[in-house]
Specification:
It is a single chain. The chain has 5 helices and 16 strands. By secondary structure, the chain is mainly beta. The protein has a single domain (2-427), classed as Outer membrane protein transport protein (OMPP1/FadL/TodX) (Porin, Beta Barrel). Strand 15 (386-404) and strand 16 form a beta hairpin. Mean pLDDT is 91; it is low at 18-25.
């Protein structure tokens, strides 16, 4: 009876998160989280070759093959501190984004079929184009007397929220030494923008009201991923996964802002990882991940398209965008099983900054410039069925300076981040 109630609860929570998720604001590796699952986050985000909970499909779907039946739930407190500093002939002026505190839920469920097969579902979020600059700045000489703000349109900012619903099937082969997993992916997105009407004149739909202040628009999409894990020798494992581009519907309410009439897909990713047990109680892991932001024109097209491409206006077929480049990410983690149901973790995540200095002006809205992430975590087991998990992440301040206003001035965008996540797992 208890297990049936838990299964029904998973479905209920899935629907609720899909339709009502709010505050998703990860902006660590671009706008992808540094890891998925509380245990992985404590180890720098590693998970290609080592999988420990039902969040595994967020990194490698093969990780749940033969996994015990379990449910994991977590809540993260995420604090990104974002600001922009304008450098003009009148001196420097800094403006902070007001929204800094976000609470982000995640949930995962695995049902073991037998010792070699399992299926499950995970609900995980991304985001990062999340800013909320105030409407007026003292001494702002670049705006008319009737208005102010970073784009002279009052309070300004954008909000992008992405939820991935990941049902997964995984199976072991070769006497349990090789695991393969597959996941169809359902994507749900929400986007809103305010105070950026100054860009309307750069849009292919100028004057049609499709650039700013249209409330929240939503889209659904689909994609897939596949992964494998293999035991190379006793205690040594390798894993890899590939996730396709997730094709979402267009943001019609912002068709004059994003390239190709509001198109905004989720970029493809792939990765490779290794994990080795250096002793009965110590495990070391390392992952490489690639995020292909150039899959999505709205993210990767440079602002220079406005001047160099006849179809480069905002919202046009090759419209200007945020100018992000593809990035490489390297993750390292260590785990120590201390006995008495205690496990301790540390990690380091090094991601490239996707924003070149030439693209600072538009990225005032999305200053996802982070590179270094330092992590820590632990698990405390209670009997055979219960776990308490914890992870913490600190990403020190990172900034990019570049030209704005056609090169007449410069601005520096910067960010610093903190995250605390607590999770509970029930095994049955």
């Amino acid at each position: 009876m208890e297990a049936r109630i838990i299964r029904r609860s998973v479905v209920t929570i899935a629907v609720g998160l899909a339709m009502g998720s709010a505050g998703v604001a990860h902006a660590t590796n671009g706008y992808f989280a540094h890891g998925y699952g509380t245990k992985a986050k404590g180890m720098g985000g590693v998970g290609m070759a080592i999988s420990q909970d039902s969040y595994a499909p967020g990194i490698n779907p093969a990780g749940i093959a033969g996994m015990e039946s379990r449910i994991d739930g977590s809540l993260a407190y995420f604090r990104p501190e974002r600001s922009v500093t304008f450098h003009t002939g009148m001196g420097d002026m800094s403006v902070d984004s007001d929204s800094e505190d976000f609470f982000i839920p995640s949930i995962g469920y695995v049902q073991q079929i037998d010792e070699n097969r399992s299926w499950g579902i995970a609900l995980l979020g991304n985001g990062g184009m999340s800013t909320d600059y105030p409407g007026y700045m003292t001494g702002d000489a670049n705006c008319d007397a009737g208005g102010g703000g970073v784009f002279c349109g009052g309070p300004a900012g954008v909000e992008l929220e992405q939820l991935a619903i990941i049902p997964t099937y995984a199976q072991k082969f070769a006497d349990g030494r090789v695991s393969v997993g597959f996941s169809p992916i359902i994507s749900y997105q929400r986007f809103s923008a305010k105070g950026i009407a100054a860009f309307d004149g750069m849009s292919a739909e100028a004057g049609q009201g499709t650039v700013s202040d249209n409330g929240t628009d939503t889209t659904w999409g689909y994609g897939a991923q596949i992964g494998f894990q293999a035991e190379l020798a006793e205690g040594a494992r390798v894993g890899a996964s590939y996730r396709s581009k997730i094709r979402n519907g267009d943001f019609d309410d912002y068709s004059g802002l994003f390239a190709d009439g509001g198109s905004f897909d989720v970029p493809s990713t792939y990765g490779l990882g290794f994990s080795v047990d250096v002793s009965p109680s110590v495990t070391l892991s390392a992952d490489y991940q690639r995020i292909n932001y150039t899959d999505v024109a709205a993210i990767s097209n440079p602002m220079s398209n406005l001047m160099t491409d006849p179809n480069g206006a905002l919202g046009d077929t090759n419209g200007a965008g945020f100018g992000w480049k593809d990035i490489n990410i390297f993750k390292f983690g260590a785990q120590y099983e201390a006995g008495n149901d205690w496990t301790w973790r540390v990690g380091y995540n090094r991601g490239e900054n996707p924003i070149p200095s030439s693209e600072v002006e538009f990225n005032i809205l999305a200053p996802a410039v982070m590179e270094d992430h330092f992590t820590f975590g632990f698990t405390k087991g209670f009997g055979d069925q219960h776990e308490l998990n914890f992870a913490a992440m600190y990403a020190p301040r990172q900034s990019v300076r570049g030209p704005i206003q056609g090169g007449q001035a410069e601005a520096t965008i910067e960010m610093r981040q903190y995250e605390l996540e607590i999770g509970y797992a029930y095994r049955f």
